[in-house]
Write a structure and sequence with these properties.
It is built from seven helices and no strands. With 119 residues, it is mainly α. The longest helix has 20 residues. The termini are far apart.
Length: 119
Amino acid sequence: MNTLHRRLFAAVVAVSAAVSSAGCATHNTLRYGAPGTPKIYSGTRLNLAVLREDAQALDALAAYGVFPPDYPWPLMPVIHATDKEQSVMDFAASAVADTVLLPVTMPYVAYHRVINPPD
């Protein structure tokens, strides 16, 4: 692979990561969720709540400051997607991200729920 291909590949990966993290349910729940927010498969749970139109689950997550993802502004004129359509687009990526992040979320939950539970 020559230098031009490597630079192009790096640029595509960087842009893809930036675009996906701005509209990823896993990113939203892990970054903006309070310590009491469910963390294990949190993005997948959020997407399922949107797809099922589960108002109770969405209200519970909203109380922690977690909302369904929005895709970044540059894509909005192109996509015009509703929350449900965005969750369909984000579901597979969130499931993969949640699985990859299990080694991080499991100890986090163990610490915050078992060792040092909130009052």
